[in-house]
Design goal:
ten-stranded mixed β-sheet, 10 helices, three-stranded antiparallel β-sheet, alpha+beta
C-alpha cells in the first residue's frame, strides 16, 4: 500500500521483500477490515489521552472507507465486501464494562451503539448474550489477494519490487540512508519499514510493543441448515472474552475464527501448537453456536502480533532513526495498513495533517 501510494504520487519507490510477498503476517491475517483503532476506546483514552484516541479512531474509520474506494478504483480482486460488526457480551463477559464502552464512544462521537440481547440475537444468531455493541461499517477481504493486488498496482505505476532480498543493515548520515543487502547497497533519501513490527534492523523500537501470536482456524464448508442457525454471512462477530474471538464467513461458506492470543512458539513446536489451538478455537466457536459442533476444521494457522501499549499503530518517523519511517502495530489489519501508508506519504511530501502527530512515536516519547 505504501509503495503504491508513493508511486501514484510520482515517486520512484523500490520495495525489498525478504521472502515472498504476502507470506508473512499480512497474508496470514483473518481478512477482517475494522473501523476501530482498538477494541476499547476507554482504555485507549486512558493510556494516550482523548485527542490521541479520537485521532486514531477517526482516522482508522476514514482509512477503512478510503481503502474500500481504492480497491474498487484499482480493480483489485480481493473479495472485499462490507460487513456489519457486533461486539457481544457472552457467557461471563463483563457486560457493565462493555456497556460503559458504548456510552463512552457515544459521548466521543465514535461508532458503537449499545444493543439489547434481543437485538443481538436477531443480528448475530446468538441467544446466550447480555447485549452488545454495534460497530461501524466493517468489511472482510482475502488478505493475500489484497497484498498482491496493491503490489501489482504499485508495479504498474513504476515501483520496483524485489523478492527474496533481505535487508541486513540500514545506516545513515546527515543527508542519506543506506540499505545494505547481501548483493549490494542502495542509497536513498528515505527508507520505510513496513514490516508490521520492529525487526532486528531497529531493535531499540521493540520496547514499544508486546509481541505475541494469534491463532486462526477455517472450518470445512458449513451446511446450509447449520448456517441458518448462525450469524448472517455478511456479519462479523467479536466476543468480549480476553483475548477476544473474531468470527467471519468466507465466500465458500467456511467460518473463520481467530483468537487464542498467546506467546510466540518456536518452529519446532508450531505443529503441535496449531493442532491444540485449532481444536480449542473450534470448541470455543461451538460454545457460541452449538449447531456448528459437527463441522470439522479444515485449516489451522497462526499470525504474528505486535501490539502497542495503548493499542494503536505507530506510523511515521522516530527521532533516533533519521531518514527512516515506520509502519508498526498494524495488527495486519488492512485498514490500519492503509492508514499507515497515508501517514507515511504525507511525511514524505512534508504535508502532515494535525492528527498525524498522535499516530507516531512522539506520543510515547
Amino acid at each position: 500500500m505504501t509503495a503504491h501510494a508513493c508511486a501514484a504520487a510520482g515517486m520512484a519507490p523500490l520495495l525489498l521483500e525478504a521472502e515472498r510477498l504476502g507470506l508473512g503476517g499480512s497474508g496470514h491475517a483473518s481478512g477482517i477490515v475494522a473501523t476501530e483503532a482498538s477494541a476499547s476506546f476507554r482504555d485507549f483514552e486512558a493510556a494516550a489521552g482523548r485527542r490521541a484516541a479520537r485521532a486514531h479512531f477517526d482516522q482508522t474509520r476514514r482509512a477503512a472507507l478510503d481503502l474500500a474506494a481504492t480497491v474498487r478504483r484499482l480493480g483489485i480482486k480481493a473479495q472485499m465486501a462490507g460487513a456489519g460488526a457486533f461486539r457481544v457480551a457472552a457467557f461471563d463477559a463483563p457486560v457493565k464494562v462493555l456497556r460503559r464502552e458504548a456510552d463512552e464512544r457515544r459521548g466521543a462521537g465514535i461508532d458503537g451503539a449499545w444493543q439489547t440481547p434481543a437485538a443481538i440475537a436477531r443480528a448475530t444468531g446468538l441467544e446466550a448474550t447480555d447485549g452488545g455493541v454495534k460497530l461501524g461499517a466493517w468489511a472482510v477481504c482475502d488478505p493475500f489477494r489484497m497484498v498482491l493486488g496493491f503490489a501489482a498496482a504499485a508495479a504498474a505505476r513504476g515501483a520496483e519490487i524485489f523478492e527474496r532480498s533481505p535487508v541486513t543493515k540500514v545506516t545513515f548520515d546527515r543527508k542519506r540512508a543506506t540499505v545494505v543487502t547481501a548483493r549490494g547497497r542502495i542509497v536513498a533519501a528515505h527508507v520505510v519499514h513496513c514490516t508490521g513490527e520492529p525487526t532486528t534492523l531497529v531493535r531499540a523500537l521493540v520496547r514499544h510493543f508486546h509481541l505475541s501470536q494469534r491463532s486462526l482456524v477455517a472450518s470445512a464448508a458449513v451446511p446450509a441448515k447449520v448456517r441458518k442457525a448462525m450469524s448472517p454471512v455478511d456479519t462479523v462477530v467479536i466476543d468480549a472474552d480476553t483475548p477476544p474471538h473474531r468470527i467471519r464467513w468466507t465466500d465458500d461458506h467456511r467460518v473463520v475464527v481467530s483468537g487464542a492470543d498467546g506467546p510466540r512458539v518456536s518452529a519446532r513446536q508450531m505443529e503441535k501448537h496449531l493442532v491444540q489451538r485449532t481444536g480449542q478455537l473450534m470448541y470455543e466457536l461451538s460454545r457460541l453456536y452449538p449447531d456448528v459442533s459437527g463441522v470439522m476444521p479444515a485449516y489451522g494457522w497462526s499470525m504474528p502480533l505486535a501490539l502497542s501499549a495503548d493499542g494503536g499503530l505507530y506510523a511515521g518517523s522516530h527521532r533516533n532513526f533519521p531518514h527512516q519511517l515506520f509502519a508498526f502495530g498494524t495488527a495486519h489489519d488492512p485498514a490500519r495498513a492503509f492508514l499507515a501508508s497515508r501517514v507515511i506519504l504525507r511525511a514524505l511530501q512534508e504535508s502532515p495533517i494535525s492528527e498525524d502527530q498522535y499516530l507516531g512515536f512522539a506520543r510515547a516519547l
